[in-house]
Structures are given as structure tokens and as C-alpha cells.
């Protein structure tokens, strides 16, 4: 193994940046591989074009005969760009994207062939789906799943394949993917938000959800990554002593981007431009070899597709640059992990950002309405929001010694806190004209100025208001954003629906004016949502104690966090909002728990293998050398040998101590795994993996890392942190 380590180091040291030449302006190539509006106008009949646009804008159904025209136009365009195949592209619950390529090529007899792509192939496909996770929904022998075209996310060409974004559902109608519940949640949000907007502007017909994700990642030289079985198989290092220099000097964050990494980013960005992914920002992150990439925000469904596609493209481009991209939330102990901030806002078809300040008191009251309803939704559903970001890998951030914590809270800044405090004192019942004028002038009316000042950003908050959007920061870097976006939009949609009912009731029953009713309901919400508001340092014991007093949940592990997904309240919520039925909620819970188990199981196996078959033999080998040395000293010095061999003797004993601890811990871990594997009930099995198997990882690692400090560097088989993290 050590030969592999040194071979990899040598290889990595000889790498040069692989520079690409950008011949065209980015604005010129943007979207050139996307079947977007401009391209559709060119390749579709007017009827076909109008039909797609109506589907995008109002969700109108596309007629089968029109679908034939659309597919023909799409095929002509794709072939003109060099595509040979088409594929339904979807996001099953495996966490990655799925595609099955079919050629346009078709034979028509007599040795003749044509290129064909009919409407039916565009609209629906039936991948052999029995191997995707389904949580017991789809018995492979009874019913199959199918993919169906999602016209709201445009088709694109990647490589030589025309990719058609699709949903993936069982024949019985249940969703088997991330996109379906997201689309339903976005629809629920649209409906609920439009109804509330009507209080302020009758012309609003549609509310779109916007998402701007920020993708953090690590780059590791591909040869170095390949030399570590843990990185290859689990995406993270399961052991490795910290390098002397980590991130203590803060010299990486926003530092000058290393040449090889920059060449990679440029190449990647050009691919993104062609695919219509509007990437804009790139920079070094806090940890060595850690970077971030962020686009201009987009409609949420499209932004989610873009992020899933991006993660795939990042892997592919990395191959060209001899890098491996690590999306894992904590690939290296001792330095920062990676997240994927989800910047979220709502905008109307009249061009208003509902979470941004407006120009008039009325539009600012509208802002406050959406702002306070969001806070209330998070307050009432903090546990569900925590569950939406739970995964084995994200457990290393949330609940470990790293911000953000596993406790959900909302940060709004000092100025908006003051605004809420003032609103809390609004009169109960009808407001006097003076009070209303005062409110409109001095509280609501001042919001734009207040927000201009809202620059203090609390970086430790899991959910922060940042001027014109909320930033959900606890999302993990490996996550499919659809999951948190589905939950966030569902809880806020439900909250807006309740708000509308309450306001209407006051208007009707108490004969209140609309503004009075809104102020009254908002005042109550502020009073009820106090527990979730927190401006302080988001992690550490003080906040944990305080949060416990407030009754906020603090689920540090995935099995504990996920459970709320199947509480009566959650199941009812998703059902009521038309996002998921009971079967779907339960299936997802089971799938995520099973995934958790499998991830820990794989890590356990890999760690056991590395510790026992790579590290212990090398430690023994080194120990033998020491023994030889001691024997030699004894030969020369006779009974005085200890004077010269004491250090070696100490080392021999230390090594034996670590070897014996590793062996007993690995044996215990293997036994715990065996016992857990026999448990039928997945909840109990997940808990066993979480509380009995996983804790042993730490002590195995501890002893291996100690050996790393003792054993001759020449012999050490695992590429070290200082080599992995500083050669890029
Ligand atoms: P940070 O300081 O956290 O890095 P930025 O201000 O650079 O954040 O913005 C990060 C992301 O927020 C970008 O992807 C950007 O497009 C997105 N964003 C900006 N405004 C909005 C908005 N109104 N809705 C959703 N996302 C937004
Ligand atoms: Mg951010």
C-alpha cells in the first residue's frame, strides 16, 4: 500500500493546470445546449410552442398530437447539435440522477434506417425501475414505475444525449422521486401565496418560489483520492491524523484560487453556461482544498434540477482535470465541512419579491405578512425542517462541533427584531386611525431603510433572513435541494392558508378592516413564534440549554431526526397540502432510514478492513524492525542494552497497545453489525447502527491515528492529510 501512496504523491506533484481557452463570451454560449424559449421558437410550430408555454405558465396539459410535433422539433434540434441518443432524466431517491439512453436510430426494414423520436417517447417512458428505492410502495412483481415529462424544466443536451427532465412515479400514482413532491409543494405554495397577495394586489395571478443554492465542495487529486479506500468507497476519510497546518491561519478563505483548481472551475463554468446553469460566483472556502460555487437564483424546480445536474457535471469535468470532487459534508476531520445554503424567496408574476421591502407602506405590510408567516411556519415545524436535512453524512455537521447546529432557529437581525417588538404592541381589535398612521409611517414605512442596514450576518444560524430572502444554511452539501425545498414550501404554504382563514374570519365576524385584521393576526403570530427567534451564537452548550428550555428539538442523529416524518401531524400536513399521501410519507421515512443504515454499514466495513488489513500489518512490520534493532543492541551491549534501547522498547509496547485496542474494537464493531443486521425492524436496526456500531468508529480511528504518529513515514500505507489537502 505505501507504494501506492508514494506513486500517487509522485503523480500529483507532476500535475499541471489544464487550461482551457474561452473563445466565446459566456453570454453568447449561455443556454446553447438547452431547448429554451428562443430555440423552441425556431424549431417548433406556433401551436406546439404555445402549448409548451401554456404548460410552463399555467400547468395546462399538452395534447398527444401536439406532443408529436414537439418531439419532432426537439429531435431536429438535438441532431443538429450532434446528439445521437435521448434519455428521460430523473432524480430517484438514491440521491443521484438517473438516465437510460436510447438511440434516435431506428430500422424500418429492407436494410433501411431513420432517426426517430415520437411524442409518446417524449411524454412517457418505462425504465426497468425495480432497482430504485421505493420503500415498499412498488412490489416489483405487481406494478412498475414510469417517468413522465416535466415541461417546466427544459430539455438539454449533455454530451451526445438529449436529456428530458421527468418525474418518476409508480403506476399506482405514488411518487418515487424527489421532483414529484417538490412540484406539488410549489403548486401548494403558489395557490396559498396568491390568495394572500390578493389582500394587497388583485392583479397577482402566480407566485413563484425562487432558490439560489451555494454548493460547497472539496477537490482532491484523483491519484491521491484513489490511494485511499475510504475516500473511494465512502466519500470521506474514516481516519487520518490532522495535518500540522489545517485552517488555523485562515489563509485559504477567499484567498487566491490555486491554478489547477481555477482551471477546473473555468472548464466547469463553460459547461454550465452551455447547459443554462447560471453560475456566477466562485471562491475558496475556509478549509484547505475547499471551494464554493453559486449561481444566480432561479425558479425552484429549475434550480433543483440545475443543482442535481451540476453535481454530475462536476464529477465529469473533474476527471478531465485529474481531480476527485468530494461533496461529503465532512470529508476531513478537524477542518470545516461543506454545506449547501438554500437561499429562498417568493416572487409574484407582477415582479415583486415578497420577502423584499417595497416602496409603499402597503407593500411593506405585504412583506411583513410573508416574513412573519415564514417565521411562524418554522416555529411550528422546526422538527420537520430538521428532518428534511437529516442524513448520515450531515450528522457530522449538525450536532457535531460545527455550525450550524441541529437546533433550528431563525435569525432576523436587530432592526427587524425591533420592528416585531413594535408590532407586538398593536391594539387588540380595531385600530384607531392615529395608531394606523403611526404604524404605517414609523414602523412599516421605515422597513426599507431598516433593511438597508441589515448587514450584520450571523453565520452560525441555520435559518437566517438576509435582506430579501431567507437562507436555509443547515442543508448538507450532498443533499438534493428538493427535499428541504419541499418541506419549507409545504409548511409556509400551510401557514399562509391558515393566515388567510384567520384574517377573513376577523373581517367577516368582527367587521374589521382588512389592515386591522392583518395587524391583529400578525401580532398574535409574533407572540407565538418567539421561541424560534435567536440572534446569538448558534452553537455551544449555552444555546443548547436555552433551546431545551424553549422546547426546541435537538436531534443530533438521523434516526432521531427522521422520526417526525411519520408523526400524525406531519402525515396530515402533507396530505392536506396535497404534497404526499400517507403511503408516500411512510415510504420516504423507510427509504431514508435504510439509506442511513447502509451508509454506516459500508463505513464500518471499510474502516474494519483498513484498520485490520492495512494499518495493523504495517504497525507489526515496523514493530518487527524495532525488535530487530533491540536484539542488535542487546548483542552489542549485553545487559546494558536497555540504556540504548529504552525508547524502542517503549515504542514496541505502545504499538502493541494500539494494535490490541484496534483488534478488540474492530471485533466488537463487527459483532455489533452482525447483531444489528439480524434485526427485522428498520427503526431498531437504524438505532443500533447509530448508537452501537458507529461510536466504535471513533476509538478505532483514535488508535489508528496514534499509530500514524508512531510508525515510520516510509511504511505508512494511507495517504496523509497533509498530502491530500495541500496538493491542488
Ligand atoms: P452569501 O453571502 O451567503 O455567499 P450571496 O448574497 O452571495 O450569499 O447570495 C447567495 C445566493 O443567494 C446566490 O445564489 C444568489 O443568487 C441567491 N439569491 C440572491 N437573491 C435571492 C432571492 N431573492 N431569492 C433566492 N435566492 C437569492
Ligand atoms: Mg450563504
Task: Give a verbal description of the structure.
This protein has 728 residues and is α+β, with helices and mostly antiparallel strands. Helices cover 51% and strands 12% of the residues. It contains 26 helices and 17 strands. The strands form three sheets. Strands 9, 10, 11, 12, 13, 14, 15, 16 and 17 form a nine-stranded mixed β-sheet that branches. Strands 1, 2, 5, 6, 7 and 8 form a six-stranded mixed β-sheet that branches. The chain has a two-stranded antiparallel sheet with strand order 3-4. A hairpin with a 2-residue loop joins strand 7 and strand 8. Helix 4 packs across helix 5, helix 17 crosses helix 18 and helix 23 runs antiparallel to helix 25. The longest helix is centred in the C-terminal third of the chain and has 56 residues. The chain starts with a helix and ends with a helix. The model has no long low-confidence stretch (mean pLDDT 93).
Index terms:
728 residues, alpha+beta, six-stranded mixed sheet, 26 helices, 51% helix, binds adenosine-5'-diphosphate, binds magnesium ion
Give me the secondary-structure topology.
Elements (H helix, E strand, L loop, with lengths): L1 H12 L12 H4 L7 H7 L2 H13 L5 H17 L4 E6 L7 E6 L1 E5 L2 E4 L3 H5 E2 L19 E5 L6 E3 L2 E10 L8 H19 L9 E15 H5 L2 H6 L24 H16 L4 E6 L5 E6 L2 E2 H21 L2 E4 L13 E9 L12 H20 L1 H6 L22 E2 L2 H11 L8 H12 L2 H6 L10 E3 L4 E3 L9 H28 L4 H15 L12 H10 L7 H5 L5 H9 L5 H56 L4 H36 L4 H12 L1 H16 L10 H4 L4
Parallel strand pairs: 1-8, 15-16
Antiparallel strand pairs: 1-2, 3-4, 5-6, 6-8, 7-8, 9-11, 9-12, 9-13, 9-14, 10-11, 14-17, 16-17
Helix pairs in contact: 4-5, 7-17, 10-11, 12-17, 12-18, 14-18, 17-18, 22-23, 22-24, 22-25, 23-24, 23-25
Bound molecules: adenosine-5'-diphosphate and magnesium ion.
